[in-house]
Amino acid sequence: MSASSILQAAWVPDDDPERDWEIAADLAVAWVRQQCTEQGASGVLVLNAFGVEQQIPSLRRFAAQYAVTTPRASRDRVGRGIGPVLAYVPDEKTLDFAAGLARGSALAVVEGAHRFPLEGWARQLGAIDLTRPDEQPEQLGSELAAAIDRLDFYKNNGFGDQFGKQQAQRILQDLRSAGLLERDVVLGALAAKGASDRAVRNLGKLIDALDRR
Known about the structure:
- Strands 3-2-4-5-1-6 form a 6-stranded parallel β-sheet, with helices on both faces.
- The relative contact order is 0.16.
- The longest helix is centred in the first third of the chain and has 19 residues.
- It is about 45% helix and about 10% strand.
């Protein structure tokens, strides 16, 4: 998923221990339903695994009306002409899958920081914070954004080859020297640029190795 392939993005950050998961889901469901109405399209609920939707009323109602799928299920479950997508507490793989489904439409994500932090994803896409919808979305700084662009350029092999690793290590070292190496932000921003879950995980390993030095 590139920033230009999603028409609109929104998220519910996992930043308040007092916020109930039902409330977080309600916010995302309401936004995606609105997008479905405005686009005249059907929505899709993307989960890490089937069954989670039955635990939250708003997700259960959404699932009864629209398609529900997971990365392990066939894409045929959601048919053609996919509209707005809601990804509930996705990990890297589920977020990548949901973003692919949402191309040319809208994507809302309920963050589960224990699975995959989304601050960088949201900042890269300028996603609306549904807990603060009237506030201007936070953007990446120019130096960090330029570094993310460079990492995106070398991600084709998922940072699995020696050349890709070396280039990524050089960029990460520059970010650390500049005091800009925030692991979660970098990984989330790269995911928003369309990096595969494999690339995101491999880059995370490179950051962890750098931090151990």
